[in-house]
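User: what does the whole thing look like in 3D?
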Amino acid sequence: MKSVIAYITEILKGIWTLLTGMRVTAKYFFTPWKHITQQYPENRQTLKIAERFRGEVIMPHDENNEHKCTGCGICEINCPNGSIEIISKSVMTEEGKKRRAIDQHIYHLGMCTFCNLCIKACPTGAIVMGQKFEHAVWDRTSLTKVLNQPGSKIMEGVKD
Amino acid sequence: MAFNIYDFTTLTKSIHEGLTASYSATTTLIIEWTIVGVAYLLFVALFGLFLVYAERKVCAAFQQRMGPMRVGPWGLLQTIADFIKLLMKELITPKEADKFLYNLAPFIVIIVSFLVISVIPFAPGLQTFDFDIGIFFVTAVSSVGVIGILLAGWSSNNKYSLIGAMRSGAQIVSYELSVGLSLITIIILAGTMQISGLVEGQREMWFIFKGHIPALIAFVVFIIAGTAETNRGPFDLAEAESELTAGFHTEYSGIKFAFFFLAEYINLFIVAAMATTVFLGGWMPLHFGNFESFNQIMDLIPGLFWFFFKVLGVIFLMMWFKWTFPRLRVDQILNLEWKYLLPINLFNILLMAAVVLFGLHF
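Assistant: Here's the predicted 3D structure for the full assembly of 522 residues, as structure tokens:
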């Protein structure tokens, strides 16, 4: 008798668990406005990209065309696959001292794995991750970018 | 009771009389055969395409996706595009394959589907064959389909195909039993095996309501076993993509693959149509005993609409199963059949016999 009761409770329990699963999928089915996938090219205007999304490495410049990069090369050292090349130059400060400055911050987007190590390592916070993700180009040379804008210089007070 | 559902026998009779007036008996027969054949082919092709589209959309909705959206509005032309692609593909035969059996297998599978579909009553008078042993015919013929699957797996000269076919064989042989027994439960209640008789018996009330508890249990068992029969849903271990690279039809391409694919969806339709015919009243409208006005309003909806409404409902239920439950292992499948469904079914037949004997049904 005990085994019969066990048998029947097993069946009822099985049906209950199956119905639990079906309730979950039914909730998904009958709330189509909550669907996760989006129609991409159509929704470009309303597209919301998460703050922490890693699209590409960018160097923010302020309105005076000034950035925070000192040309220290720590990002270059930290990059696991050599996507960053730092070309530095020396400039004369007003006091007549020689000082290192960035000439070209070369970033190879095609080699980047978006691991975020360069941003973590940067002592001055000069580079950040941007949200742009449409990187398709016709010519791969355009994947090599110079992050510091032409004629830009370092911000006042940023020291390494 | 006023019964004003359009009867298709008037249409078929007028066509028949029109043809016999101008042609000889043999020519009439040939023309009628051609008409029926073309009608079934068209129906199977179009409904198969629709079901593939519906499956993709329903599956997408269950997984919080959108499904095909690009080809035509809401992706409506997607399956047509897929079908054209399949027609244009090369027919590849594996080197060491048994050529004759390899080419024969898809035809067996699809012919079996066509045979079964011929006894399904779509609407009053819209049924090709009306045997006295209709239900028996359905269960007998539908189990021939497994030969096509076994042949396909065997002749492909592919280990995965063979394993898939063997699994499919074990599964279908087991679940045939449950399908048959759950149908017998209703036959006890109906007292006939003729399909038109079954539908006629549900004029007052559908069998699932008339036979209350045992009929409901039989319906659940039939849906589970029917899902297993079609190699679908949680029972798709015969064509498990992740384990067997699609099982018995791995080596097939082009139109032969399309045959298997189409047969699978037509079998889905057949199981849903049998569930509709046997449990849910076929093309009979929803009637409640004494609500005359309600019954008459229900009579206004054509039988064809009722039939497809119920069939699509059952198909939706089976798609819901497929996209909710994880795939069963072979031992689990056999356990489910022999340790649970079969004893429940046998007990259920006893229960139904008692219900009918003591007149406990509605």
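In plain terms: Chain B touches chain A at residues 58, 61-66, 69, 320-321, 323-325, 340, 344 (CB under 8 Å). The longest helix of chain B spans residues 25-62.
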